[in-house]
């Protein structure tokens, strides 16, 4: 079910991108064809609500600094880390004029789980001088996931009329991702732990494309696709984020919205302390109140 939903969102992403690019070519170069005399209905908007993450699919492997010997771990399946979660999320923008605006997003995720190991798990390389250990079968394992995200970006509306809008932009994706695994063996009490930190406080460049379509005076649909490619020091990877929203301007400055959001994260680490890989897919529902001026 999750794979089908994820493929559907990927197909919607492709359709949305084709729509935006086609619209950009069809509108022509003249500014008069791309803008009208009406002022923006929403110069400032903030969305506050819940991100109901229906499904996490997270895998990680912690290698040594020399060889890819770590065990591939599925956090949800192997260690019972929460597969769903509801978090508070804040999005919004401020528009300088019909062409230029700044956007922002913030949310954080905290998950944990525990299980009895069904097999041996290699974390790093126990024979490596830089460290590592083996989680033996039948050990009790506790795992935690911590993820903080702040996105700030600029968007240029190359087409902006009362009925519809198309934009492209760029920004910074500031994140902190940490996975920690601890285990305990009852017959010979001791514990070991290891930590994977994506050093997400580094601002990562993000490309954005999206659009708005006013279905009526009250209803509007919005889509947004973000992509960043990371090649920084000992880290590489990418993240794709797609949103499809439906909003209703119920009152003069207050409205409501729902939507879908998928996030696909891939990270590869090759630093002096640990090497490994991390992949995560997130599919969730958005429900929020919007305040606009």
Describe this structure in words.
- The structure is a single chain.
- With 293 residues, the protein is mainly beta.
- It has one domain: Lipocalin, CATH 2.40.128.
- It is built from 3 helices and 14 strands.
- It is elongated.
- The two termini are 40 Å apart.
- The relative contact order is 0.19.
Entry keywords:
293 residues, mainly beta, Lipocalin, 10-stranded antiparallel beta barrel, two-stranded antiparallel ribbon, 3 helices, 14 strands, 12% helix, 62% strand
| Radius of gyration over all CA atoms, rounded | 22 Å
Q: What's the order of the H and E elements?
A: HHEEHEEEEEEEEEEEE
**What's the N-to-C terminus distance?**
40 Å
Strand order of the largest sheet: 1-3-4-7-8-10-11-12-13-14
* Number of E-state strands: 14
| Structural class by secondary-structure content | mainly beta
The CATH class label is Mainly Beta
Q: Which residue ranges are poorly predicted, with pLDDT under 50 across at least 5 consecutive positions?
A: 24-29, 194-200
Which descriptor suits the 3D outline? Answer: elongated
Please report which band the strand proportion falls in: under 5%, 5-15%, 15-25%, 25-35%, 35-45% or over 45%.
over 45%
Q: Compute the average pLDDT.
A: 82
**Percent of residues in helices:** 10-25%
Number of helices: 3
Q: What oligomeric arrangement do these chains adopt?
A: single chain
Largest sheet: 10 strands, antiparallel, barrel
And the CATH topology?
Lipocalin
The CATH architecture can be named as Beta Barrel
């Amino acid at each position: 079910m999750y794979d089908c939903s994820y493929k559907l969102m990927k197909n919607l992403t492709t359709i949305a991108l084709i729509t935006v690019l086609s619209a950009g070519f069809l509108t022509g170069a003249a500014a008069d064809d791309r803008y009208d005399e009406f002022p923006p209905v929403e110069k400032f908007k903030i969305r506050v609500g819940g991100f109901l993450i229906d499904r996490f699919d997270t895998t990680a492997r912690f290698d040594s600094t020399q060889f890819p010997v770590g065990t591939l771990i599925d956090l949800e399946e192997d260690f019972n880390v929460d597969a769903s979660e509801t978090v508070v999320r804040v999005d919004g923008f401020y528009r300088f004029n019909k062409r230029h605006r700044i956007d922002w997003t913030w949310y954080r995720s905290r998950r944990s789980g525990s299980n009895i190991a069904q097999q041996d798990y290699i974390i790093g390389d126990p024979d490596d001088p830089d460290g590592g250990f083996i989680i033996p079968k039948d050990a009790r394992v506790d795992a935690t996931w911590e993820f903080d995200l702040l996105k700030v970006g600029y968007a240029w509306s190359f087409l902006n009329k009362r009925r519809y809008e198309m934009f492209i932009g760029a920004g910074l994706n500031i994140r902190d991702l940490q996975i920690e695994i601890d285990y305990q063996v009852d017959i010979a009490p001791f514990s070991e732990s290891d930590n994977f930190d994506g050093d997400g406080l580094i601002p990562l460049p993000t490309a954005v494309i999206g659009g708005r379509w006013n279905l009526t005076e009250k209803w509007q649909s919005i889509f947004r696709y973000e992509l960043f490619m990371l090649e920084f020091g000992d880290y590489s990877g990418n993240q794709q984020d797609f949103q499809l929203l439906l909003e209703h301007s119920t009152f003069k400055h207050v409205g409501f919205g729902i939507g879908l959001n998928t996030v696909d994260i891939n990270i590869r680490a090759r630093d002096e302390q640990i090497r490994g890989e991390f992949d995560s897919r997130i599919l969730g529902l958005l429900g929020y109140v919007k305040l606009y001026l």
